[in-house]
Specification:
Structural class: alpha/beta
Number of helices: 12
Order of helices and strands: EEEHEHEHEHHHHHHEHEHH
Helix content: 25-40%
Number of strands: 8
Strand order of the largest sheet: 1-2-4-3-5-6-7-8
Radius of gyration: 18 Å
Shape: globular
């Protein structure tokens, strides 16, 4: 990459006080933060968020770890190329390329939302680099039989769906807000940190294309689900908001059925555990990372 992009003035560098770094995969430049030293924790976000979602986790864990948090192509402070296909499988390949270029090993992989299929697909492709995994509300199986997902797919692929996503910035403005059980945890200012990355129609293509993939990539999700056995012998932690309007308790039960050895913590909140139950989630992760040492992350 010839020139480092300028950081937009809307970025709150008090809330997000990290050094901005970039890597240049084939699809376009990719923003990430890389803080601290030690064992690697790699945070992977979903839609419509970016690495800002993990800001408190970066601060907490970079005291004793090397913490890396990416922005997918089309999201956050990464490039938003018009021609990028933007399906989860494309993001997964970008993540594979990122991990290899950075030569990361012994990774604690943390995923959420669409970051689940993206991150887990990348992990399945290079299991030797993965030490353990942390799941926030997400999934990894076909959506063709899910009536709600199919209804969403029909709306997304209609004129109305395209209009509300590309013209009204529907996903960060309204869907993100709906996913909070307690709106007090999403102040107007913090909400703007999720809205501002998508100022115009072209910048919102990534949101629209990944939304299309909820139903459109069903076969690919199922292929990954069938290969999850490649990771089942790793250590797993599941942190789940039980009032999530999108990924309800049935999704958690399916994970529990497939990964009965996983350590599971539930929280009385919505989709964004990272925002609504920040301290509790950090504490649970800390106990998982240091099972024999109390208060190691404080």
């Amino acid at each position: 990459m010839a020139e480092t992009p300028e950081i937009p003035n809307w970025v709150d560098q008090t809330e997000y006080p990290f050094k901005h770094q970039y890597i240049d995969p084939e699809a376009g430049y990719m923003h990430y933060v890389d803080e601290g030293e030690g064992d690697i924790i790699l945070f992977v976000h979903g839609t419509p968020t970016w690495s800002f979602l993990y800001r408190h986790f970066i601060t907490a864990f970079s005291k004793g770890h090397r913490v890396i948090a990416i922005d997918h192509i089309g999201f956050g402070l990464s490039e938003k190329p018009k021609t990028f296909a933007g399906q989860p499988q494309n993001h997964a390949q970008n993540l594979v390329e990122f991990i290899r270029k950075m030569d990361l090993h012994e990774i604690t992989l943390v995923v959420h939302d669409f970051g689940g299929p993206i991150g887990l697909a990348a992990a399945i492709e290079q299991t030797e680099r993965i030490k353990q995994l942390v799941l926030f509300n997400t999934w990894l199986w076909e959506t063709a039989s899910n009536k709600e997902a199919q209804k969403v797919g029909q709306v997304i692929n209609s004129f109305l769906g395209r209009f509300i996503y590309l013209r009204l910035n529907f996903s960060p403005r309204l869907l993100l807000k709906k996913a909070f059980t307690e709106k007090k945890y999403l102040s107007g200012h913090i909400h703007q940190q999720y809205i501002k990355p998508f100022p115009n129609k072209q910048s919102r293509l990534a949101l629209y294309r990944i939304a299309q993939s909820l139903a459109g990539s069903s076969d690919w999700y199922q292929q990954q689900w069938q290969q999850i056995s490649a990771l089942e012998n790793k250590r797993w932690l599941i942190l789940w908001g039980t009032k999530d309007p999108f990924f309800n308790i049935d999704f958690l039960k399916k994970w529990w059925w497939r990964l009965p050895q996983a350590e599971v913590h539930t929280f009385d909140c919505g989709h964004f555990v990272q925002e609504e139950r920040t301290g509790e989630a950090i504490s649970a992760m800390c106990d998982f990372l240091y099972p024999e040492v109390k208060l190691a992350c404080e």
